[in-house]
Amino acid sequence: MPSEMYIVIAVISTIVIVGNIINITVFFAHKRYENFVLQNSICLKKIKEINSRYNFYPYKNFDQYYTYDNENFYDNITCKDYLVYQLQFIGKSLSEQIEKIRINKEQYSKYVDEVNSITQLGEFEVSVGKLKLKKLIKKELLLIEKFKFRFPVTQFFLTVTLYCSKIDGQVYKQKSQEFSADDIFAINRKLSNKSGSFYNDREIWDAICLVERGKVSNKMRFSIYQRDGYRCRLCGVSDKFTKLEIDHIVPIAKGGKSTYDNLQTLCHKCNTEKGDSL
Ligand SMILES: [Zn+2]
Asked: What separation in Å is there between the alpha carbon of 207 and the centre of ligand 1?
């Protein structure tokens, strides 16, 4: 069954980098030391006060996973074409998210500066009494790490990967490209240059048409032939006498989509004569 020979999997994955590395520390020190630091450390009080003045945006996931049963989709389409196409739908919210990440980065750097300017390490509100100062400071350092904000997302990359796999899932070719926030802004700017439902930038429009065309899967192709009785819908010639083709009723170049109701069976002759007309 040719319709199930190949599967193209398109994956958009976003990679985010958080502001700091997660520190996992085992606390061995005596509970008494921990309690004393928690109650009396001037550093920790300052950090809590600084924390209360900062708010970081949480991260929203944009990962996507699509499959297309059409090998041409892989061969004819670049990762960038695919991204351009998908940005029609997620471009706006992705831009907003990138802007929030930029604000996070700015805020986080101010936050780190403020925390780093605290100088009262080892100073406590009450006398340390018989407790050992060195041990208290060690404890205090661990607690400072624990209290600091560590998770704001401050950097962003987006990767588009196209995989070509056999029906059993075995990937036999793949390509991948990474995009920065600036790349995405640049594409979004071009996407916003529109006349009605058409994009004015040639490169953008070509990419969108390519991906739209690639969405005619083998499965669709065969069910359209079947629906139309294996005959040309214009002149009626059957597949016994000529090679049949799939035509977009409203051409892609005129904004037509690769959907069942916009596809029909034509013979090569009728399809050539019709060209890009409606
Ligand atoms: Zn015909």
From this structure: 29
